[in-house]
Amino acid sequence: MTPRPDIVSLRRHLTAGGLIAYPTESCYGLGCDPKNARAVVALLRLKGRPKAKGLILIGSAPEQLAPYLAEPPAAWPQYWPGPTTLLLPAARHCPKWLTGRHSKLAVRVTAHAEAARLCDALGMALVSTSANRAGQRTLTTAAQCRAVFGQSVWVLNGRIGKRQRPSTIVDPASGRLLRA
Fold first, then answer.
1. What is the Cα–Cα distance from 140 to 162, expressed in whole angstroms?
2. Residue 91 placed within a domain
3. Which of 78, 99, 144, 171 sits at 20 to 30 Å (Cα–Cα) from 86?
4. Calpha distance 69→60 (Å, rounded)
């Protein structure tokens, strides 16, 4: 990301419940620390997204997603890294603020180099939902994110990937394609 954010300050911001906007495969994403309930509630409120829908987590490697899942996610190399989000059984201790009304969690090992470097630098998975207010078009630049969210979100500069649509969502257990 240009310029590279101070990772220590960014980690503090996330740990304290702060929100970020960062580039992903097809648009800017809104994110936060998935372990921080207050941050997730703030993100949902800012976006206008119902809690029941659940959220997507991204990581730079399956190991960053593993703590949230009932089984290790390493069995899906045909999908990752890439723009495919999988619905996998959530661990019993996985917070409901991530799964919503579901027993599965949406997870992805991102192929977007900047998003992957961000997860690596922070040493954690991130919540990743499109940067927009519910029902509005997705935002594709840092300037758009600043205009819409102002000071409520730490916006990271960068470029989105070339993908035209949001990530594909697949339930590998049933073979169902939930979003193409």
1. 11
2. yes
3. 144
4. 16
Full domain range(s) for residue 153: 7-179
Residue 2 resides in a domain:
no
How does pLDDT run along the chain (180 residues), one tens digit per residue?
444 568 999 999 999 999 999 999 999 999 999 999 999 999 999 999 999 999 999 999 999 999 999 988 766 778 889 999 999 999 999 999 999 999 999 999 999 999 999 999 999 999 999 999 999 999 999 999 999 999 999 999 999 999 888 788 999 988 888 887
Cβ-Cβ contacts under 8 Å for 5 (sequence gap 6 or more): 154, 156
**DSSP helix/strand/coil, 107:** strand
Q: What tokens does 23 get? A: 């580039």
Q: pTM for the complete prediction?
A: 0.92
* Neighbouring-strand partners of residue 127: 57
- CATH number for 20: 3.90.870.10
The tally of domains found in the chain comes to: 1
For residue 108, list its beta bridge partners: 58
In a domain, 1, yes or no: no
- Number of neighbours of residue 178 by Cβ within 10 angstroms: 12
